Amino acid sequence: MYDVVALGELLIDFIENGRSEQNNPLFEANPGGAPCNVLAMLQKLGYTTAFIGKVGNDAFGRMLGETLSKVGIVSSGLRYDKNIPTTLAIVHNKLDGDREFSFYRNPGADLMLQEQEIPYDLIENCKIFHFGSLSMTADPVKTATKAAVEYAKKAGKIISFDPNLRESLWNNQDEAAAAIWYGIGQCDVLKIADNEIRWLTGEDNFDKGVEIIRERATAVLINVTLGKEGSISYYGNRKIFAEPFLSGHTIDTTGAGDTFCGCILGDVLKYGLENLSDRQIKRMLLKANAAASIVTTRKGAIYSMPELIEIDNVMCGNMR
Question: Would you say domain 2-318 falls under CATH 3.40.640.10?
């Protein structure tokens, strides 16, 4: 039995890491992809995970397969495409630590996962099934994703969804919105960023934005990440806010939201989704905020996930 199975993109994040003697930017090849970042955090917390996706049968794809093995993510659901290369993302860091992405994915191997390649036994033997919107940008992976979600729901699994909006990867905003609304309509646990709420609902007021989302949502727990401002959970008729753990050593925010998501799913596995107290939810958010803060002080995501003792140390040192 696996605690969490995720489906989606596994790729190489080329992240700026210094300058050459000629003052040209140097880029480091970091394993990444939001669903696997989430699984990597869960592995650090001691949970069992497995991944479903596709990479190219090339040097980068083989590197990614080895990465899954190194961090303990079961890779039996990873497929290799002989004709399409592994997807690449160039991550340009801004002065404030935020990022700008350039993708080499037209197509990329992650888009080539077909419905008949889904290992349904992995989904059958998990507690939580997690996915995002980037596996719905084009077929065949769009059809494969929806088939996997449908199977997971029928099997009674907890469904987790993170939009992880990357506007440049969509043909148009209507297609992106339709895919994100689909995910929102399927999930039990939703993680969504502040900018995604603004983009999707047109609301700057997050309470109003969540009201709009709830009209089409099945989620029991909705978590809104606010970047440097902390995070909010909406659970039933309650709203719980948790303060951020700000670091003066932020160098790369890649994977911060995925780290947050992984921590939340870890506590969902621990506490379930029924009758959560405000105290439990607040603790969940603080833990997730602390972990996200740590990962921003490191390059990349999969190999940068913090240990539980590191998270506890940040919380104890900064707890209000």
Answer: no
